[in-house]
Design a protein that fits this description.
It is a single chain. It is built from four helices and twelve strands; from the N terminus they run βββαβαββαβαβββββ. By secondary structure, the chain is of the alpha/beta class. The protein has a single domain, classed as Dihydrofolate Reductase, subunit A (3-Layer(aba) Sandwich), CATH 3.40.430.10. It is globular and about 40 Å long. The two termini are 17 Å apart.
């Protein structure tokens, strides 16, 4: 299982149920990695999308304690275990955890690879991802050259869980 996110220098990932910043190259990378695959998210993340609609050309699994299916094609599950079981129905697809904060934390034990767009700036965030640089179970295995979008400096990083 994979996770994909953008994080600031303090591993902040959002504020008020919104991304901290929108970087076109980050959005493009997200689309390229997740299209044709399975995405797992929380209800609030789904609601943050335009018109609250599931992402096109992906299987959308939504973890929700209260939500009902909207008829827009998402699959509602009530637990991490149920989401993992649902994802097993798609053995030919990659499984991506896409947020929000509590969903990332709940699914991190299942994740082997994390794609992180690391932003060289500290934003006013209210939602954070665990700091993989300080977690000895994870190692940085790939990092792009520095990228710049207007005045935002960032890199694309790949972290992998160390084999036990």
């Amino acid at each position: 299982m994979y996770c994909i996110l953008s994080a600031d220098e303090n591993w902040g990932i959002g504020k008020d149920n919104k991304l901290l910043v929108s970087i076109p190259a980050d959005m493009k990378m997200f689309r390229e990695k997740t299209i044709g695959n399975v995405v797992i998210m929380g209800r609030k993340t789904l609601e943050s999308f335009p018109k609250g609609l599931p992402l096109k050309d992906r299987v959308n699994i939504v973890l929700s304690s209260k939500g009902e299916e909207s008829g827009n094609g998402e699959i509602i599950v009530r637990s991490v275990e149920e989401a993992v079981e649902e994802a097993k129905k798609y053995p030919d697809k990659k499984i991506f955890v896409i947020g929000g904060g509590s969903i990332y934390k709940q699914f991190l034990p299942y994740v082997d690879t994390a794609y992180v767009t690391k932003i060289d700036h500290a934003y006013d965030a209210d939602t954070f991802f665990p700091n993989l640089d300080e977690d000895n179970e994870w190692e940085l295995t790939e990092e792009s050259d520095e990228q710049v979008c207007f005045d935002i400096v960032y890199t694309f990083r790949t972290y992998e869980r160390k084999q036990k």
